[in-house]
Amino acid sequence: MFCTLNTHKVDMDKLLGGQIGLEDFIFAHVKGQRKEVEVFKSEDALGLTITDNGAGYAFIKRIKEGSVIDHIHLISVGDMIEAINGQSLLGCRHYEVARLLKELPRGRTFTLKLTEPRKAF
């Protein structure tokens, strides 16, 4: 799904970018469990920041404390966003996914299809 630089943890601030030094370690995070989550959009802002890996996969980078998404414990930082209401997001950039989430009407329920990074043994 994505790689982090110098940490085995799912730290979206450490996503592998263009600069790798000779002393750096690269950790690959592979697909784990898939999940489908119903979300009621009670606020205009859901309280999440999205990033992408430049290869067509968008991920949850941050979740704002106390936000709509923060209250849904099945959703975590590092989850790949596969679909919204059945619409595939594979191949989309982070700003396209953010726009689609923002355009969802307030006061309605929508479905997120997510894949979490596989947990270490």
From TrEMBL:
SUPFAM superfamilies: PDZ domain-like. Coiled coil: none annotated. Gene3D superfamilies: 2.30.42.10. Pfam families: GIPC1_GH1 (PF25083), PDZ (PF00595). Transmembrane segments: none annotated. Residues 36-116 form the PDZ domain. InterPro entries: GIPC1-3_GH1, GIPC1/2/3, PDZ, PDZ_sf. SMART domains: PDZ (SM00228). PANTHER family: PDZ DOMAIN-CONTAINING PROTEIN GIPC1, RGS-GAIP INTERACTING PROTEIN GIPC. Belongs to the GIPC family. This is GIPC1 isoform 11.
